[in-house]
Amino acid sequence: MTKLKTLSKALLGATAMTALMAGAAHAQTPAGTNVVNTFTLDYSVGTTAQPTISNVPTGGTPFVVDRLIDVLVTNGGTVNVTPGQNDAVQTFTITNESNSDQRYVLSIELPPATDPGFLTTGAGTQVFFIDANGNGALDAGEELDGTSSNITPQVDLGDTITVSVARNIPNQGAGETGAVDGEVSTIHVLAQTIELAVDPADPTSVNTIVTITPDSGNNTNTEVQTIFGDEAGVFTGDTGIGGTDDTPDGSHSAAGTFTVAAANLTAEKTVGTFAQDATGCDTITLGDATGSNPLALPLRDTSEIFYIPGACVQYEILVTNTGSQPASSVRIEDTLPVTLDLVSIDAVGFTGGDFTAATQAIPLPADCEAAGGNPCVIEFENGTVPAGTEANPSLAAIVIRAVIAGPPAAPTP
Questions:
Q1: Contact at 8 Å (CB) between 251 and 243?
Q2: Phi then psi for 125, rounded to 5 degrees?
Q3: What digits encode the pLDDT tens for the residues 388-409?
Q4: What backbone torsions phi and psi does residue 16 show, to the nearest 5 degrees?
Q5: Which of 51, 186, 248, 342 is the most exposed place for a label (fewest CB within 10 A)?
Q6: pLDDT for 13-50, tens place per residue?
Q7: How far apart are the C-alpha atoms of 252 and 381, rounded to whole Å?
Q8: pLDDT band at residue 362, thresholds of 50, 70 and 90?
């Protein structure tokens, strides 16, 4: 029976030191290699040579190289994600530092429900896959063999494979059920060493995890023993050299971090009177930017102007972005009732989009040229609101001017 042991930190260090002192820069000797050493001893008594003493006739002094189980899991770093993103990808490398070919079963650990991050236990789904075409995305047929068991292909001694995790990100929102800009959440991926399949063509034929059993005696020269030499990881219960109990367990784990990078938009619409009649209603001219009016929007008349037939009213749709990412493909639709005749419209603060400050003479929709009994639908498309911060938000606005239908009339005192 194969004995299973753990290799202490001190012993590993001594072994490494011995190799360095000997100048050995060789690849790992495979487990099970039979190493045979021979010697001869010649001597004389007086001038008479005596028979040679040697272990060659008995086959030398042999020992069998034991199996050192050591695996290293590393992560590619922080990945920025957006709320609602499907199949956000974290990449991990698994290096077989053992002296035998191995396979690994992978597990994922999400933050506990008390974690302030947006990925909590049981939230969403995740899939392990190997990115065969290198496009950084999960494609059909790339999932690991046996999706439920997440078993890797065989990793030869000294080789490294790259395994990715595709994870759905919650939609935007505060708390455990949503993702907000700047929020961070971490996943842990564990690789446990398993025995090779009896039938290489059938990865599920043997999935036995290499486990530690008590050592029943001293080291033997004729039996391959299994020794653990892995370091401690971040996964719950992943012990190893350098950990609290300094006990290798034939597995290793690493952490991958998702950081939400998103736009954070708010919008509000206000209305006020611009003029008692239509004078100047058709020309939207930006003013000077001030602390209270950073977009330099044209000011509405604050004197006693009433919402009466013939008066020019000014709507403003103000969009604010305090997120670290720009908001792209912005589309704003505004419907004026039949009691308003659209006169002019403009956009300011957006990057791109259908309207710019230099293009005020736009063709009006047919329903907006005059009060024809149909509501006027205004659309602004393909605009971008640049990124901002809470302290310095990015602002953009749509300015709409319309005249209240009917002949102008003097206000009643």
A1: no
A2: -135, 160
A3: 999 999 999 999 998 988 765 5
A4: -65, -40
A5: 51
A6: 444 433 333 444 457 899 889 999 999 999 999 999 99
A7: 50
A8: very low
Residues 6+ positions from 363 with CB-CB distance below 8 Å: none
Instruction: Give the number of other CB atoms < 10 A from CB of residue 151.
Output: 20
Q: Are 287 and 299 in contact (CB under 8 A)?
A: yes
Confidence (pTM): 0.75
Angle (nearest 5°) at CA 404 between 398 and 406: 155
Residue with tokens 């929709």: 365
C-alpha to C-alpha distance for 305 and 151, rounded to whole angstroms: 75
Tokens 């606005």 correspond to: 397
Torsion of CA 52, 55, 56, 62, to 10 degrees: -160
Residues in the chain: 413
d(CA 156, CA 239): 24
User: Does residue 398 contact residue 314 with C-beta atoms inside 8 Å?
Assistant: no
Q: Which two tokens stand for residue 248?
A: 């290798």
Q: Are 242 and 232 in contact (CB under 8 A)?
A: yes
Torsion angle, CA of 108/114/117/121, rounded to 10 degrees? 30
Name the region of 67 (left: φ>0; alpha: ψ -120 to 50; beta: rest).
beta
Tell me the average pLDDT across 131-143: 84
